[in-house]
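Continuing from the previous page of notes. For each protein in this section, the sequence appears first, followed by its structure tokens. Read the first protein now.
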Amino acid sequence: MKWLTGLAAGLLLWAGTALAAEKWNMPTAYGDANYHTQNARLFAKAVGVCTGGKLEIVVHGGGSLIKGGEIKRAVQSGKAPIGERLLSAHQNENPVFGFDSVPLLATSFEASERLWRAAKGRLTKILDAQNLVLLYSVPWPPQGMYFKRAIGGVADMRGIKFRAYNAATARFAALAGMPSVHIELVELDRALASGRVEAFITSSATGYYHKLWKLMSHFYDLRAWLPRNYVFAGKRALEALDAHAQNCLRSSALLAEAAGTTRARELTGFYLEQLAANGMSVQAPGKRLAADLARIGEIMSAEWAKAAGAEGAAIIKAFRGK
């Protein structure tokens, strides 16, 4: 009978452990092959190891659980405890969310990191007021333009149907005389096939993942900005965890930010090489195009600074070390 008593005690202990475990579903907007999604899965694994399995984070990529444009609202409302989203997608609700998409402000990974450090504290406060907790952020490679033909200047862009993914890209299209439509990345292939879009600004990563050399002929490596994704949790969901689990989330987030940023750096050159290897013209903008884009950049930078006000000025001042 002793063995039976011991077995019963063991089963009760196992059941207690199982009941104590918690599962968090984490929606993301990008497919499983994307390094942001892969990094999120490593983050989830690290949290599971750190908590001894008491907190399981299940990553749902490609908008399969919740569409990209709905992720932030879902976390705020408690529909999901955690999520990942493109930071500048929320610029319309607060200009500070668009700090990473100011044209030609931060055009390298080093500059992007300085800009992130300058903006992080202010962004954290904004999210806190929205009952959200910032966990980590990872940049995309520098942004460039995809076209189906050679572009010598802004005059050559007029009338081309342009895919926008945030307020900055929509404004860029307007200034360049291109009608724009907001298209999430998971919808890009269908939009190109149907003719809804003919050009766009995005990273070399997008070109590689979506094999854009099949439909596009030219990539202009503008290095206009490095947009960022960010991972955030609902404040109530996080505070419901015990102290150890909360510490695991935060420490795993630090690792994920470092690992994801390193991966972005490593992949950037590879993506560009693959675009060229598959027949796409990969080049820096010519003199006239560069001058036209610089003028657009000056307009957009001034507009963002005005909209962001004192908060934006403080970010720029901290970024420039003044």
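Done with the first. The second protein uses the same format. Note its length before scrolling.
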Amino acid sequence: MRNILLITGLCALSVPLYAQTSIAGKGAENEKHSGKIEFIKTADKPDVKENLKKDRPQDNNSVEVPHFAIRTRDNKFIMTIGGQIGTIVGADLGNDLYQNDNAGINFITSQIPVPSAEGKRSDFFINPLNASVDLQVVGFGGTDNQVTGYIKIGTNGINNQIKLKKAYVSWRGLTAGLKSTLFEDAAASQPPTIDPQGPCGMISTNAYEVSYISPSYSGFRYAIGVDIPSYYSSNGVYRGKDYKLWNGTDIAGHPVADPTAYNQNVPDIPMWIEWGKSTYNRIRLSGIIRNFSYKDLLSSKRRNSVGWGMMLSGNLNPVEPLILYMTAAYGKGIGAYIQDIAGMPLSFIPDDAHPGKMTPSPMMGVTLGATYNISSKWQINAMASEARIWKVAPYAKAAAEMPGNYNDYKYGFYAAGNVFYNISSYFQVGLEYLYGHRKSWVNGSASDSRVQMQFMFTL
């Protein structure tokens, strides 16, 4: 928080300093005019709005552009503060997902208790912990050298702890910092939801990343980046059925690999190519390569296991009020990027047929959605999603013996429908129905439904 306040103070200090800076090659009168600071409403200044929008996050639960900004008349300096305060009132019917320590107002299907507990199959809640504030500063707005600094803090829907959510700098297509991973296609991932979590099969995570996105060449663009990786591997205990003994040693139920023996020094490499006529008429092919280092305890060697993923995503806007969304991802060892599977120690497991070696687990995530804009005031949305993981049964069963057994995961299904009404550009109300189903390898399956209403103020 101290760093955030320092950044804010420096940005505020830079305003009067910049106003005094001269512009080479122009007369004193012109310098005074172009460097003058003014307070504006962004809706009345399309050029400012576009400059701010260019490097802001694109996910549906972010503020597109704040209502107000301060700038110099030549847009060489723009600063804006945005934010959201959302209170959600709702009830779970069929299970008690809200009371899960890792969920709260986040409807995470992989956290649905299996089986549901007698006497805890419904719950009512009022939760104001869906709030965020962001600061954006733009230099040389509207030029080829436009540079943007962006920072966002907020709560997580579970407690009142403030967390850093995003912090990055962008210039000429290069972006560096904490941001949505390049493997994610935010514009295609989902229609708007009250649920802060979103669909279970969506590719979505924040990463420490350096990335480059090219300009558009007649609708074609490409991008490539490097991410600091997060790995959720098993503990290296062999639970396969092919071998009980290895060179005369009993390996069943014993460690054959050490996933923590080495630092992970190879970054994840996300990339994509895209063609589109407009924001909501486009198609994208994404990929990611990741390397996992570990120690083979049976041969005392350092080894590597390569994970990979592919995703087809895009939007279609066949008629003006209707927008369609689609993402379909498949890969091995990409659990850190799939909404429902992130955090589960199942992405890399010991290889059944090759004791001592580890192998990436196959998994997938699919999301389909639609938005219909009835008018400027009314919007309805619907979506369905599924996440699934294969060939991890022995390791998921072992996890099922632990309290909570949330790592005992086979697949999840998520469906949502909602309606939003914009009372004004500052205030929106919404009503939403959610359904989630979780299938485990050992304990069967369970479902939960949630009905909730949101009151959202946007700065």
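What the second structure shows: Confidence is low (pLDDT under 50) at residues 1-31. The longest strand covers residues 122-139. We return to this in next week's lecture.
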